Amino acid sequence: MTSALGSAPTGRDDQVSSTGRPARSTSTRAHRRRWARAAGTGWLYVLPALLMYAVFVLRPLALTVQYSFYDWNGIGVARWAGLDNYVTVFTDSDLLKIISNAIILIVFFSLIPVALGLLVASMVRRITTGAFGTVVRTILFLPQVIPLVAAGIAWSWLLSTNGLVNQVLRALGLGGLARAWLGDFDTALPAVGVIGAWVLLGLCTILLVTGMSKIDPALYEAARLDGAGPVREFLAVTLPSLRQEIGVCLTVTIIAALASFDIVYISTSGGPGLQTTVPGLEIYRLAFSQRQVGLASALAVVLMLLVLAFVLPIQRLTRGEKP
Amino acid sequence: MNLSRREQVTGRVFLIALILVTLLPFVSMLSAALQPRGTVPDGLAWPSDPQWGNFADAFTAANMGALLRSSLLIVAGVVPVSVLIATMAGFGLGQLRVPGGRLVFGLLLLGLTLPFEAVVTPLYYQMQDFGLLNTRWAIILPLIGLYMPFAVFWMRAHFTNVPVELSEAARVDGSSTWQLFWRVQVPLARPAIASLTILMFLWTWNQFLLAIVLVDDATKRTMAGALGAFQGQWGTDLVLLCAGSLLILTPTLIVFLIFQRQFIKALIQGSLKG
User: Fold this and answer.
1) I need a surface site. Which of A28, A223, B206, B236 has the fewest CB within 10 A?
2) B244 in contact with A at a CB cutoff of 8 Å?
3) How close B256 gets to chain A, by Cα (Å)?
4) Quick one: B63-273 is in which CATH superfamily?
5) What is the ipTM of this complex?
6) What is the pLDDT of residue A94?
7) Among all residues of chain A, which has the CA nearest to that of B116?
8) Are residues A154 and B15, on separate chains, in Cβ contact within 8 Å?
9) CA-CA distance, B12 to A106, in Å (whole number)?
10) Residue A248 to residue B272, Cβ atoms within 8 A
11) Max Cα-Cα span within chain A
12) Does A164 sit within 8 Å of B148, measured CB to CB?
């Protein structure tokens, strides 16, 4: 993401120097005029996208920042509030809990899928190219294709009192553990996390296995000759070679965890209590039910910065080598 | 590659376990959807007398015809325009290399990790000012804007790799910039455009937050938004809820299975580049 900025090609200079002959100033001027016109035409191509982006993203973004400094109920007159909303976000125990919920979800949305994906990838190394491979890939991608809402509904049913999870537990003689997983104070957040893990596991596995199949087998041969066991082999060959893929998985899944909304809205509505409320849901509630637009906006700014605080270091670490 | 037999077998076992876990929720929903209405089904039990009629009931209850139409209209409003203007911008930034392009690109990068929640509140008031609240435009227009960072990033990456000589050759032939774009560059960019189209379709179809915030009427929403409303209405009738959810999933699944090769390629490339 960020690396692309640094590697901007130098083609423009080539274009200028290939036609602009410094000896004849008139031709340079003519060239410059032509170049200016070409640049004008070029801008016409960029403009529509930029316009849509400015009107429907940049302007709202600026407004979010502006609202965050006001006390506003969405209808009446807004009152300047300075940093009050931000102070509330960082001191109110409910809001702090909500932010920490999102961070806890990273364990489920991100660490578990990446760890399991790595485990599978290092054992499978490549999904066979034949029909079996196609079936595996297709099925593992299903959760990526369906709406998160559907995943939420399916898992609400699986985790409900009569659902499959409890049915299996009872069959195993562990009926004592059975409960309404999403309604229980202690298990609700992990249960929501399991839904996210289910959605993202297939994607991570396939990305990592795809990366795995690009690793030169000679590296493994060499490691074996050096007497490396599976663990050494994993640490010395697999992990470094998959750095970029791991970075991608972490980026995608961490954003999914921090900005989660759909799954939580459908499966628990944030309950019981505030056990599963995440920033996205709280922004929605504050802005549209409780009419605290200023506070909602401050939380939105914090959420945005939180995402960047996690994602930028990962980008730097995993793509660090390339300038 | 010398993998020991034991490793290979464990690998397979893990994969198959993963597949089962992935499929279980769907199977469990199907088993519930086929139970008689009004019963409290078990997690997974094949019904003695499968009630396929539940799907017909759910079709009517969910107003599926109207929902399909609405989602298609929204996709038709978002996808072609997004793909076209993103391709144009990618061409402008990656091939024509307009002056100030890097600034534009930097601005777009800013939006790449932006959670939609961060802009949804002002979007609501903006749509209210435009008088578009509760119309499909309230979903279509913001989505086009929100897709631009990724879409332009994607197309620019393609156009940056096309050698500039190609454009120069076309210019020597006397073609205008538009001819160069439309006749030479766009046909060459077809694979990148195809992947982008698939991703935009999927993200639009599954968009939930904008749908529930900006449009009250479920029949004017996306499929995902409509599913949310359906759950609100029929949440207590589990049999019907499962039947309806599966039904609402069917169009995506059909499209996915038909284009599964392209979908998977697009999703892998999409996340690697994003």
Assistant:
1) B236
2) no
3) 7
4) MetI-like (1.10.3720.10)
5) 0.89
6) 94
7) A259
8) no
9) 28
10) yes
11) 92
12) no
